[in-house]
Specification:
Elements lengths: L1 H33 L1 H25 L3 H14 L4 H13 L3 H14 L4 H13 L4 H13 L6 E2 L3 E2 L1 H24 L5 H18 L6 H13 L3 H14 L4 H13 L3 H18 L2 H20 L3 H10 L7 E4 L2 E4 L1 H12 L4 H6 L6 H4 L1
Antiparallel strand pairs: 1-2, 3-4
């Protein structure tokens, strides 16, 4: 009896599986004849994902044209594929086909309005490639307003850091757009100053999440253009602390100190900027910096500060053990390398910038 029941249930089970499988197949076949367009669209969607996958592979292999061809095929099959639109736009930027890039960014944003990175990239192209600063500034505002909120589920998802970073990037690039717009109104001082103030406000919002060289450096430029010398100096010093071997902040600080008649500090920063450029082999810029340095040294000599600078440089002796000779060549030791880095990281006249304040505030400028 037990064997009979066992065989019966096995037969019933196998028959049920076969019947259900057959019914599903018949439903699928019947559905294709009843809803042919739906099934065709799903098949095209599957194919489009394959071409996007191939496009991603081609891009990673350094074959951008092959990637473009695959993304284009994917979009022919499934025009609403957001990733294909976005990746294609990025590749057009690489090829400097900015109008094709803008077209694809726009279509991607129509499909996904809260696509924050796509909107930021779209605004960057508008600003830096087509100089449409007004539209770019609005797009940055939209990117921040429509950004999807951050989510935190322990051990599963935590996009708070990414959300804040993208927000900082949007504010930073918006600051660049405001500064770019200010350059268009060179003959209208009121508008120029107003847009520079807007740039400073955007940079300061970016600093809440982006404590990076570029933000401090550009904030320094905006303040310097508004003649807020102490605020500019503080930001150049912060930029130098972040990236001491980047010549730009040293050079701008040297120009700022020269305008403030702090010739000793200006000379020190010009020397640092010149050494860094010389190490890169940029002869033209190096010659220009040393030409300006000569002018500063002449002013130093007239004010009897030159001897003080020479004495200070002589006092900075190279201690024994910091350099050595191997095969007749001077070799810098690790200790000396650290000392050089510390020297470049030290901002000239730093105390002055932190102890003094600009008499004119942003409200008064506005």
């Amino acid at each position: 009896m037990k064997q009979f029941l066992k065989k019966f249930f096995e037969f019933f089970k196998n028959t049920t599986v076969r019947v259900i499988s057959l019914l599903l197949i018949l439903c699928l076949i019947g559905g294709y004849f009843v809803f042919p367009e739906f099934y065709k669209a799903q098949w095209h969607k599957i194919q489009s994902f394959y071409y996007v996958y191939q496009g991603d592979k081609a891009y990673k292999r350094g074959k951008p044209q092959e990637a473009i061809n695959n993304y284009t095929k994917a979009l022919e099959l499934h025009p609403k594929h957001v990733k294909a639109r976005y990746n294609l736009a990025n590749l057009y930027v690489a090829y400097e086909d900015y109008y094709s890039a803008l077209e694809n960014y726009e279509k991607a944003l129509e499909l996904k309005p809260n696509f924050m990175t796509a909107r930021i990239d779209y605004a960057i192209v508008l600003s830096e490639a087509t100089f449409n600063y007004d539209k770019a500034i609005k797009e940055y505002d939209t990117a921040i307003e429509k950004a999807p909120g951050w989510m935190y589920i322990p051990f599963i998802i935590d996009n708070k850091k990414t959300y804040k970073y993208n927000k900082g990037v949007a504010y930073y690039n918006q600051g660049l757009a405001w500064r770019g717009k200010s350059l268009l109104y060179g003959e209208e001082p009121y508008k120029t100053r107003k847009y520079l103030i807007n740039a400073i406000n955007s940079y300061e919002k970016a600093l809440k999440t982006l404590k990076e060289y570029d933000v401090h450096y550009n904030l320094g430029i905006a303040n310097q253009l508004l003649r807020r010398n102490y605020a500019a100096g503080r930001n150049y010093c912060k930029a130098i602390e972040k990236e001491p071997m980047n010549y730009e902040a040293h050079y701008n600080l040297a120009i700022l100190l020269k305008s403030m008649k702090k010739y000793s500090g200006s000379a020190e920063e010009f020397i640092k900027a010149g050494l860094l450029l010389d190490a890169k082999g940029d002869g033209n810029k190096t010659r220009y910096i040393y030409d300006v340095l000569n002018e500063v040294n002449q002013k130093l000599a007239l004010e009897d500060e030159y001897q003080n600078l020479v004495q200070k440089l002589n006092e900075e002796e190279i201690n024994e053990g910091k350099v050595t000779y191997i095969g007749g060549k001077l070799v810098i030791t690790e200790e000396f390398d650290k000392a050089m880095l510390k020297n470049f990281k030290t901002c000239s006249n730093k105390e002055m910038f932190y102890n003094e304040e600009d008499l004119e505030t942003l409200d008064e400028i506005e």
